[in-house]
Amino acid sequence: GIQVEQSPPDLILQEGANSTLRCNFSDSVNNLQWFHQNPWGQLINLFYIPSGTKQNGRLSATTVATERYSLLYISSSQTTDSGVYFCAVGGSYNTDKLIFGTGTRLQVFP
Amino acid sequence: KAGVTQTPRYLIKTRGQQVTLSCSPISGHRSVSWYQQTPGQGLQFLFEYFSETQRNKGNFPGRFSGRQFSNSRSEMNVSTLELGDSALYLCASSYNPSEAQYFGPGTRLLVL
Predict the structure, then answer these.
(1) Average pLDDT over every residue of A43-48
(2) Is-contact B8 B107, C-beta < 8 A?
(3) For A41, which of B88, B94, B101 is closest by C-beta distance?
(4) Which member of A31, A40, A88 has the closest CB to residue B98?
(5) In chain A, which residues have their Cβ closer than 8 Å to the Cβ of B58?
(6) Which residues of chain A does B45 touch, with a Cβ-Cβ cutoff of 8 Å?
(7) Structure confidence by residue, pLDDT tens digits, B69-97
(8) In the predicted model, what is the mean pLDDT of chain A?
(9) How far is CA B112 from CA B46, B81, B86, in A?
């Protein structure tokens, strides 16, 4: 099956700093999503981005499907950005089955 | 539009018991998926339902089962609970398969 690797595993930042999270996947995908899991366990959908670039406020994401990676950019980080960021991919059409990476744990300090 | 809801939010059971978890998708969403999250195994796919049909099942024993009703609400059942079933169980919905998925708050199950 498809393997998903995320880096770095842990990231510690001071408020205001920028960061880049990376997701590598081992095979072609038709579905790629980025999620943020808050300290209470809720998974928030950040981007649905099987290819191309999207931006939402301080967050943006880019997926280069031909090179099998995706990047999540967080600018001007805030303490509320803390949590775990997951990349999840789907390799088949017409299915919701997602394979999750192991996540990047982000801690933002004031 | 209300988000995905899951009940109950917390549950404590003992080994050998069974448990039923419920998930109500976002209004209009027809696809529901379930995931198990543990510290050791991370997030793992359990099963997926669309139009009351199970379309996919993950690598879990037969003690894990589920179903979807005509209103798209879904339930999952775990029989003969084991200590290793302690986990956060997450439900997600989408309008169609392969589209953006939205997760509920999860059910935390503790098996003693």
Answers:
(1) 96
(2) yes
(3) B88
(4) A31
(5) 97
(6) 97-99
(7) 999 999 999 999 999 999 999 999 999 88
(8) 95
(9) 22, 9, 9
Q: Is A103 on the interface with B (CB under 8 A)?
A: yes
User: What pLDDT, in 10s, does the model give residues B94-109?
Assistant: 998 888 999 999 999 9
* Cβ-nearest to A45 among B45, B90, B102: B102
Mean pLDDT value of segment B45-56: 94
Contact residues, chain A, for B100 at CB < 8 Å: 33, 45, 48
pLDDT at B52: 93
Q: Which of A44, A70, A76, A46 is nearest to A58 (CA)?
A: A76
Q: Cite the beta strand spans of chain B per DSSP E.
A: 5-7, 10-13, 19-24, 31-38, 42-50, 53-57, 64-68, 74-78, 87-94, 102-103, 107-111
Helical ranges in A17-87 per DSSP H: none
Predicted confidence (pLDDT) at residue A108 exceeds the cutoff of 80: yes
Give the torsion sign (CA, A75, A48, A98, B77): positive
A99 touches chain B (CB under 8 A): yes
Cβ proximity of B63 and B80 under 8 Å:
yes
